[in-house]
Specification:
This protein is mainly β. The chain has one domain (about 10-90). The chain is about 0% helix and about 55% strand. A seven-stranded antiparallel sheet has the order 2-1-3-4-5-6-7, with no helix packed on it.
């Protein structure tokens, strides 16, 4: 998952919930990142859907999520990469239940 996700990039302090897509909280301005050890970088598409998340720690990507939605806006696929680069792919049905 090295290719860049396109869209509007925004920065956050944390997230909430256990369901996907993650809910990013406490938005930060880019100039607030300079002395921050850890933060989340989220990419949103033209419909304000979260399509990618990176957890940044000491300037390195510690975790990454990529989300794909169907034409109705339902999450259908999530790719989750950990710090070791191991990727887990999750798929979801039309009711957002894992398949």
């Amino acid at each position: 998952m090295t290719e860049e996700t396109t869209g509007i990039r925004r920065y956050f302090l944390t997230y909430s919930g256990v369901n996907l897509p993650l809910t990013l909280l406490n938005e930060l301005e880019p100039d607030q990142l300079k002395n921050r050890i850890a933060f989340f970088s989220g990419v949103y598409d033209g419909q304000d859907r979260l399509t990618g998340v990176q957890k940044m720690v000491y300037g390195e990507v510690e975790m990454e999520h990529r989300y794909q939605y169907d034409e109705t806006g339902v999450l259908r696929r999530a790719e989750i990469s950990d710090i070791d680069g191991e990727v887990t792919v999750l798929t979801f049905d039309e009711n957002s239940r894992r398949t």
